[in-house]
């Protein structure tokens, strides 16, 4: 079963403490205060729960959006889906 946009948002909300409703495809990592330590925690959760290995070489900055993160994961892992659900984009 692929890792969906909605699942990624849920994990991001859990790791960062930001309400899921505030995380959209246009939200940046800076907006949700995702620093390097939180990114490591996020990577560990993805690996443990979904078998997705968040590569150290992902080209993400604090200005990267959630859509950028989802796309990078989809390109890297067959278990990740790039497209946000229709409800997430509203």
From TrEMBL:
Per its UniProt record, what SUPFAM superfamilies does this chain match?
ACP-like
What are the boundaries of the signal sequence?
A: none
List keywords of the entry alphabetically. Answer: Phosphopantetheine, Phosphoprotein
Which is a GO BP term held by this UniProt record?
antibiotic biosynthetic process
Q: Which Gene3D superfamilies does this one have?
A: ACP-like
Q: Name one GO molecular function term.
A: phosphopantetheine binding
Pfam families with a match to the protein in the record = PP-binding
Q: Which residues form the Carrier domain?
A: 2-77
Which residue ranges traverse the bilayer? none
- Protein name, please? Acyl carrier protein
Give the originating organism.
Streptomyces acidicola
């Amino acid at each position: 079963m692929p890792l969906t946009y909605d699942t990624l948002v849920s994990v991001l909300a859990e790791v960062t403490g930001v309400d899921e409703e505030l995380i959209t495809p246009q939200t940046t990592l800076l907006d949700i205060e995702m620093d390097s330590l939180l990114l490591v925690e996020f990577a560990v959760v993805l690996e443990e729960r979904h078998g997705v290995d968040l590569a150290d070489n992902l080209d993400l900055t604090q200005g990267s959006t959630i859509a950028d993160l989802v796309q990078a994961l989809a390109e890297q892992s067959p278990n990740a889906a790039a497209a946000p659900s229709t409800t997430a984009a509203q």
